[in-house]
Amino acid sequence: MFPLAIDPIVFSIGSLPVHWYGLILGVGALAGLFLAIREGKRFGIPQEFFMDMLLLGVPSAIIGARIYFVAFKWDDYKHNLIDVFKIWNGGIAIYGALIGAIICGIIYFRYKGYPFWRIVDICAPGLLAGQMIGRWGNFVNQEAYGSVVEESFLRDKLHLPDFIVNQMYIGDAFHHPTFLYESLWSLLGIALLMVLRRQKFVRAGEIFMSYFIWYSIGRFFIEAVRTDSLAFNGSAGLASFINGLWSPMEWLGFEQGYLDPAYGNIRISQLLSLLIIVAAILLIVIRRVTGEPKAHYSDPIVCTKPIQADTVVPESAVNTPQKTRQGTQPEQGQPADGDKKEQ
Which residues does 145 contact at the CB level (< 8 Å), separation at least 6? Predict the structure, then answer.
């Protein structure tokens, strides 16, 4: 096998190796935290709220991501359970991470007294930032790569630097850097969401839904290029439908990665991406029709929990009750926003 161009171990502390994979995931989480804190300041939300959210959300995401992956690869782990915990070797699924993080968020936001949709809107660009950076952990581990490709495609058509081209030599051939495709797609998504959230027509929850739509579109097309997809055996009609939707990629010169027929004929992430896109669009439409999201993204965010004794409230928050920081109460005689219908 071609030697790794990059050593997956950064350094060791005694006998404990520190892997690039974990370090890169940590950097991605911090980048997402930075974006959330920066945007949260516009709404008077203290940075401690987002820091605590990260401390709870990252473990929840990792657990969810690992459970999701192991559940679909159980035959590879059932005889060696200790390998379930070796996440530094790769093997976590982003959709599983999102499930774990969302469950944690629902509980944490309710405990802190913040409306779920308003906070996840703020966090959406940070999620993409974490995914954009985290994909480089797959690059170092030489995993989540695509089908075989000519070296000239990487050098002459994509104009990739040597360190990426060399790392994409896996086994006895060069492969599509699908980690890079997804990373760049996430970068474009960050720019899109940042522009979108400045538009006055955007309602609460729609930035978060737009994140799911954008990411899932990219994941649907990129996933089929990979050779390590989780899959299952489904109907031939469904497989044909999915392949038909993916066929425009062939016009761009891409080929689907090999998928063992004995393992399955439908890639789980592709099917899930389609379901998420449809569900997110329907949710936006239904909420608009029913008038559920009364708040816009730019509206003040109100916390329904009582203020803490050591919380410093800025003068602007005191003078403008509707634009409150954590725990600030509305003036007497005015209805609390937290008593209104869910935003």
Answer: 138, 168, 170, 175, 176, 177, 178, 179, 226, 227, 228
Residue 4 lies in a domain: no
- CA distance linking residue 36 with residue 44, whole number of Å: 12
Q: Is 219 annotated in some ligand binding site?
A: no
Q: Are residues 91 and 217 in the same domain?
A: yes
Tell me: do 156 and 296 sit in the same domain.
Answer: yes
pLDDT value of position 4: 60
Per-residue tokens: 272? 């899930």
Per the rule left: phi > 0, alpha: psi between -120 and 50, beta: everything else, 230 is beta
Q: What is the pLDDT of residues 87-134, one digit of tens each?
A: 766 677 888 899 999 999 999 999 999 999 999 999 999 999 999 999
**What are the structure tokens assigned to 228, written together?**
């390590």
Q: Is residue 105 part of a domain?
A: yes
d(CA 247, CA 243): 6
Q: If you count them, how many residues does the chain have? A: 343
Q: Does a structural domain hold residue 76? A: yes
Joined together, the tokens standing for residue 135 give: 């994909």
Q: Which residue has the higher pLDDT, 58 or 2?
A: 58
The whole domain housing 120 covers: 15-301
